[in-house]
Amino acid sequence: MMIHTLQDYIPRLQCLQDSRQTPHKPFLLLIIMEMLESGELSENRIRFREIEEKKPFFADLMAVFNSENTENWQPSIHNPFFHLKTNGFWHLDPAELQSRPTAITPTEAYLGNTDAVAKLDESLFLLFVMPEYREILRQTLIRTYFSNIRHEIEQVIEEHRTLGREHIAGDIEEYSQQLIQAVEHPFSIQRDVASVQTETPVRSAGFRRAVMQIYEHTCAVCELNIRASGGESVTDAAHIIPFSVSYNDDIRNGMSLCKLHHWAFDTGLISLDDDYQVIVSPSMSEQGPTASMLTQLRNKRIWLPRDGEHYPAQDALTWHREEVMRE
User: Fold this and answer.
1) Strand 270-272 to strand 278-280: parallel, antiparallel, or no bridges (unpaired)?
2) 202/12: higher pLDDT
3) CB of 77 closer than 8 Å to CB of 112
4) How many domains, in total, are found in the chain?
5) Are 140 and 226 within one domain?
6) Which helix (H) or strand (E) covers residue 236, if one does?
7) Do both 215 and 280 map to the same domain?
8) Are residues 116 and 199 in the same domain?
9) 40 and 131 co-located in one domain
10) Are residues 130 and 14 part of one domain?
11) Which of 46, 125, 271, 307 fits 118 for a cystine, CB–CB 3.0-4.6 Å?
12) Torsion angles phi and psi, residue 88, rounded to 5
């Protein structure tokens, strides 16, 4: 199925340009692929404000292109953000942008002030998300539009990958330590979204690092602890109240859970009582080995951090029982 979808989109990505053969659209799509690669983009909502932060990357790609071509194109990243809608797989919000005549290109300021968002076709976004298909599409863009400067374009991309990794690594450690130290303050169920400033890859990785540190890479429910030689862990850093609801990375709003128990917790098949004992939903059937892996945990006290200040917040657990737990 995905192969057929890939075959549908390859020719569409090979026909992005108008008669002027501008490089802007393929450059923007390459940057979006890199944002997915790095974790800066994780959902099919591409905000112009986040794209604006990639202007240096866009400018470096454009400089390579201009050095080998007679045209001297300006690195105007807002142009492809608006004009990609003409290719049929790029959809703009607010709706006024989608219906606006292409002859009236909005300014950068307008796109930023309206918090403009683009979405790819869901099927194309899935291809972008999957590494093997993303690489095929990335090479399609590079070979179609930049075959004579392919190596130079690849070099610019790799340089920005390296810069991103170096920048993010320090920010992740700083953010994780801030989260651990924040237990000195009273727990709040929800943070003001306007106060959430940290960029997505730093926020997500910093939260994970802090939770893994205090739970010692151990699943709080089943106590599974497996780590690969490269440091990868079988456990996830799970939010008790989802970040999309609470905007809260407080480590007391988190637990370390293995894949199975993370899924069971998020779907409301299990929760915790005030004594940190496992509650199993009455809707949980006793059929099959996976079911028994959950039902046998009923009333089991979870594995908790060494420091009581790091325990899951009672307010967060109450919210989970009331809003997520299945009756």
Assistant:
1) antiparallel
2) 12
3) no
4) 2
5) no
6) strand 235-239
7) yes
8) no
9) yes
10) yes
11) 46
12) 90, -15
* Residue 47 φ then ψ, to 5°: -80, 135
246 contacts 190 by C-beta, under 8 angstroms: yes
Whether 97 maps to a domain, the answer reads yes
Peptide bond into 94 cis (omega under 30): yes
For residues 169 and 136, the model is more confident at 136
Q: Quick one: pLDDT band at residue 19, thresholds 50, 70, 90?
A: low
- Beta-bridge partners for 120: 90
Which residue, 222, 243, 220, 219, is CA-closest to 233? 219
Place of tokens 């070979």: 143
Domain membership of residue 172 (yes or no) is: no
The candidate with the shortest Cα–Cα distance to 26, out of 18, 209, 8, is 18
Q: Is 80 exceeded by the pLDDT of residue 73?
A: yes
Helix ranges, 14-130 (H): 24-38, 48-52, 55-67, 78-83, 95-99, 108-113, 122-129
Give the C-alpha separation, 217 to 195, whole Å: 29
The strand pairing partners of 256, in sequence order, are 237
Interstrand relation of 46-47 and 117-120 (parallel, antiparallel or unpaired): antiparallel
8 and 75 fall within a common domain: yes
The residue among 122, 145, 168 that closes a domain is 145
Q: Tell whether 182 is covered by a domain.
A: no
Tell whether 153 is covered by a domain: no
How does pLDDT run across 234-257, given as a tens digit for each residue? 899 999 999 888 889 999 999 999
Q: Which domain holds residue 76?
A: 2-145
